[in-house]
Amino acid sequence: MKHLLTLFLIPFFLLSYFNQKENIVGKWIGDDQNEVGYVIFDADGYAAFEINGKVLGGKEFTMNGKKGKMTYTINHDTTPIEIDFTLTKTESGETKHILGIAEFTGKNIMKFNMSFDAERPSEFNENSIILKRVN
């Protein structure tokens, strides 16, 4: 009986392990053309880029005298994972999208590529960076 129960429990635990989605929340560091920067994903769906101590994004930021916010969405159902950033001007509601792809190569390491034009990258290439979670 114990062995029969074990046979039923092992697939259940394996199934739940493989169905877990990678957790992206945290601060990630990357080196892009010899410039170190950070990508920050918070649990509330806000994202920010930090370069040379300057933060662009998050729940509220100011750029060129205009207030805005940056959010992110993730589609785990695609390969590679799709990550979309949405910059929204607070006053006008105008939005701009930054489309990206990611692939986890470890729990705290991911390949990342994004495009600032309206087209999502389809692969990882020389413009891709490796991000490592720092917290």
If you had to describe this structure to a student in words, what would you say it looks like?
- The protein is mostly beta strands.
- It has one helix and ten strands; from the N terminus they run αββββββββββ.
- The chain has one domain: Lipocalin (Beta Barrel), CATH 2.40.128.
- It has one helix at 2-18, and strands spanning 26-32, 35-41, 47-51, 54-57, 61-63, 66-75, 81-89, 95-106, 109-115, 129-133.
- It has a ten-stranded antiparallel β-sheet, with no helix packed on it.
- The protein is globular, with a radius of gyration of 18 Å.
Q: What would a concise description of this structure say?
A:
The chain has 1 helix and 10 strands; from the N terminus they run H-E-E-E-E-E-E-E-E-E-E. It is mainly beta and 135 residues long. The radius of gyration is 18 Å and the shape is globular.
